[in-house]
Amino acid sequence: MRHRQADGSMDLAQLRTFLAVYRAGSITAAAGQVGLSQPTVTTQLQALERHLGRPLFERLPRGVAPTAAAHDLAARVAAPLDALESVTGNGTLDSPPVVEPPVLLGGPTELLATLVLPALAPLIADGIRLTVTTGLADDLLADLRVGKLDLALSTVRPRGRTVLADALADEEFILVGAPDMAARADPNRLRANDFTATPLVAYAPDLPIVRRYWRHVFDTRLEAEPALVIPDLRAVLAAVVAGAGISVLPSYLCTRELSSGAIEPLHTPADAPINTIFLARRVGGPPRPHVDRIRTHLRETARHWQTCVD
């Protein structure tokens, strides 16, 4: 059933093809997913672009890049098309079994590397394919809503009815430094923004994690410039271990270094700042057993993460 309008305007098949290209980032890859030839996919996209009067993709040497019009269209049609697909299915009883595509998982680099990917290793060995994207929470949740991700790990609670989220664990933040830095650290001087003896190391120039810690624990506004900025918390940890300065880090990331004495907590507040880690997924869509297995596995293994984040 084509659902084509009499005036030749866009139809359901065109929208499905568009969404496949949008999510795959490639006409060739999308053609394989929707069971069409590459020329047919190109023809459908061109018809849809003529109907809209705007280009939807920029052709790149490898793949395509969505335009602003494509982002807008995907945001409007992704949820309805996924809901329709979950009702109608994507095959018949006589169809050959479909090989599941890779599960598209997004999250913060450090959390993925330290806790999530090691936890998922048994599923990868069991045949599940996984493609990982790293980034900031807002960007990842936006990609999840339009189907560019199947699951997203976020420290921001998702809003809206199109996304559901499970709370996996809480990450606690600790002010840490190497032993010689710990010997020099004076909470009163730190509260007064005196870092002459303890330079600050951060993953961003505006010190978001450190500023939050100062506001929450010391009840004061942090007024300081970082001595070292590295856009990776694992590199921040390495610099702190080497004695470059002090920083605030999530406890799961530095459990081993704290246990070995490579770094020490510089302050032990009664109420440390925390973030809740959420596992978010879209509502509706066709059945995806591998997505469900990863979600269930992460929910089960996250119970043991608490020993890493306490």
Textual characterization of the structure:
- The N and C termini lie far apart (56 Å).
- The radius of gyration is 24 Å and the shape is elongated.
- A hairpin with a 4-residue loop joins strand 1 (57-59) and strand 2 (64-66).
- The chain has two domains: 12-77, Winged helix-like DNA-binding domain superfamily/Winged helix DNA-binding domain (Arc Repressor Mutant, subunit A), CATH 1.10.10.10; 101-310, 3-Layer(aba) Sandwich (D-Maltodextrin-Binding Protein, domain 2), CATH 3.40.190.
- It is an alpha/beta fold and 310 residues long.
- It has helices at residues 12-24, 27-34, 38-52, 68-88, 109-125, 137-145, 179-184, 187-191, 208-218, 233-241, 255-260, 289-309; strands at residues 57-59, 64-66, 103-107, 130-134, 151-154, 163-177, 201-202, 228-229, 247-250, 264-265, 274-282.
- Mean pLDDT is 86; it is low at 1-8 and 91-97.
- The relative contact order is 0.14.
- It contains twelve helices and eleven strands.
- The longest helix has 21 residues, at 68-88.
- Strands 3, 4, 5, 6, 9, 10 and 11 form a seven-stranded mixed β-sheet that branches.
Radius of gyration: 24 Å
The portion of residues forming beta strands comes to 15-25%
Estimate the mean pLDDT confidence.
Answer: 86
CATH fold topology of the largest domain: D-Maltodextrin-Binding Protein, domain 2
Spatial shape? elongated
Keyphrases for this structure?
Arc Repressor Mutant, subunit A; seven-stranded mixed sheet; 310 residues; two-stranded antiparallel ribbon; D-Maltodextrin-Binding Protein, domain 2; alpha/beta
